[in-house]
Design a protein that fits this description.
mainly alpha, 84% helix
Length: 243
């Protein structure tokens, strides 16, 4: 009976988490949709885009509102997930997880800004010049927005890497030594990601690849800080007199 009650409670909490997150996303979507018209000049950056029909208008507006609402809702969803898994965490792990949520949000937003103001303009202009060399280019709003998402959203997640490594070290899943030994494999993965989200020119790939390498090294540095702090705390605890 106790196991059945526990399972029922978990399912109930999961249901609440999904409902509250969906409501928050839905409200954010509606609010952003209302103000989308004012955001279009910022998103399109003065580009002359073409819509092929009335459905393109719906797709474009809902695409913008949907993407931004997910980003805005990320902290709330993170809080809901933390509340759901909190019973399975120790008090220390729970506090650390809650502490890293704002940092991961900040890094995600930083990655989006980096993608929007650096990666996207370089990639877009390069491909545009390459296309206009031999073809008449007609950019639709749908293709423009899809390319914009492809070059910004991944950067948001990649910028979270240092804090994710820091958190995994804090809960003793990773160590700085393991991260250092895995460096070459991490670089290969980052190089593949860079090749996917950038055009095939050396300069554009370097613009993305170098920051990704720096982020991984930053993650190792932060991991070392956390690891050393944990060791000092463990030594101090051992030195405390037993009562």
């Amino acid at each position: 009976m106790d196991e059945e009650r526990t399972l029922t409670e978990h399912l109930s909490e999961l249901r609440k988490m999904l409902i509250y997150s969906s409501i928050f996303i839905g409200v954010s979507f509606m609010v952003i949709l209302i103000f989308t018209q004012k955001m279009i000049p910022i998103i399109t950056k003065g580009q002359k885009l073409t819509m092929l029909g009335p459905l393109d208008v719906i797709r474009f507006y809902t695409g913008i509102a949907g993407s931004l609402s997910l980003g805005v809702s990320a902290p709330f969803i993170g809080l809901m997930v933390w509340k759901f898994i909190r019973p399975a965490l120790t008090d220390l792990e729970s506090k650390k997880a809650l502490r890293y949520i704002p940092a991961m949000l900040f890094s995600f937003m930083s990655g989006l800004l980096f993608g929007f103001y650096i990666v996207f303009p370089f990639s877009y202009q390069f491909l545009l010049k390459l296309g206009t060399t031999n073809f008449e280019m007609m950019i639709t709003t749908q293709s423009y927005f899809s390319f914009l998402l492809m070059t910004t959203i991944p950067m948001g997640f990649l910028f979270e890497v240092p804090f994710i490594l820091m958190f995994l070290t804090a809960i003793e899943i990773l160590t700085p030594e393991l991260l250092a030994k895995s460096r070459k494999y991490a670089y290969i993965v980052l190089a593949i990601v860079s090749a996917i989200i950038t055009p095939p020119d050396f300069v554009s790939q370097l613009i993305v690849l170098i920051p990704l390498f720096i982020l991984y090294e930053l993650g190792i540095g932060l991991s070392k800080m956390v690891f050393q702090k944990q060791q000092k705390e463990a030594i101090q605890t051992e030195r405390l007199p037993q009562t």
